[in-house]
Amino acid sequence: MKRKIxxxxxxxxxLAILATVIGIxxxxxxxxxxxxxxxLAVSAKLLKDTHYLESIDPKTDRIDLSTDLSExxxxxxSEDGTVLYDNDVTTEELSxxxxxxxxxxxxxxxxxxxxRKSDTMGKNTFYYALLLDxxxxxxxxxxxxxxWSVFLSAAPLIVVIILLITAICVxxxxxxxxxxxxxxxxxxxxxxxxxxxxxxxxxxxxxxxxRAQHTDILSAVKARQDFTANVSHELKTPLTAISGYAELLExxxxxxxxxxxxxxxxxxxxxxxxxxxxxxxxxxxxxxxxHTPPFYDExxxxxxxxxxxxxxxxxxxxxxxxxxxxxxxxxxxxKDMLKEMVENLAQNAIRYNNPGGRVIVSAKMKEGATMLxxxxxxxxxxxxxxxxxxxxxxxxxxxxxxxTGGTGLGLAIVKHIVDLHDAKLDLDSAPNVGTxxxxxx
Length: 441
Prior knowledge:
9 helices; 441 residues; alpha+beta; Helix Hairpins
């Protein structure tokens, strides 16, 4: 980046120098042309005012203006275009001048001028013609450098100036680049420092966004590390139990009654292991970006009724009464996901309840929004724990969850499904009073 800035600053400096030199050269040359024309007009008028050419006979009198006017070419032309006198060459060498534009203009309007490129490379010849009182024309001319010659003559000096300014620009650009980028480098070094403010106000939104992204990335990395550690721990527990019971059975030391107990515990641990693996796979599927199943218009109350039979059996096993209530209300979503969400919330309400407790699952419309409400009068959740219950493997009561087959991933799956449906999740709970979870679509 520094190299690009340096090169661009140097490039801008060189372009500025060239543009300035070209512009000044063009302006100077135009002024120079105007001055040459003015000088020629003055010289012609002075010669006319002397009446010298009008008072002599070109056939008999000798005319010599070469000594006094060595840098000025003087030509005298008759009315028929014949050259009567030229202080540079003999008249015999010159052709008729009646077709010259400046001579034509002089005969017609009294004065005429033109600029022609001479045979001398890189020079222009300026002509000024003036009609005399006797009907002849006096023309004066001089050679001057062309604009290209002027530019080439200044080229060595221009090159020296460009090299000098380029060297200065390199030094200045390095200094400016360092000063410009230093606050950005400091911002990068203090990315984790929330109190650091960039000296450039324009960078504040950028730094805040970077800081937020950096925090999110660190949080995601920590969450992934925690998830990996939790998965390892959760899988290790049932596997250890299965391995221990298998060793006891293999040793042949267990009686028939103990064997039945061991078989039961192995099956229980295997079921828990399968449930953990299924929930982990499910979470991975929900985490996968760009893999969202198709959404359709679904009746949430019909989905609740489809879950009724299985939830009723589970509730009865836990000595919990469960009620399904509501009205037809539609949401745009994926049926399987919505069903999974209802089952996980209801199972959680059953699992963390007391014998003889109740659970109510309902769907209703309120102020144009579809709402899923799952409430219970179970053990409740302390306020300090409520922000964490949707974390993976987080349990309010770890012993109760394991006894009832919970994996600690159900509410994390619910949170994912709610987010994928752009819904809102609200929790209202108090210890020994109960919990109400509301999902608003």
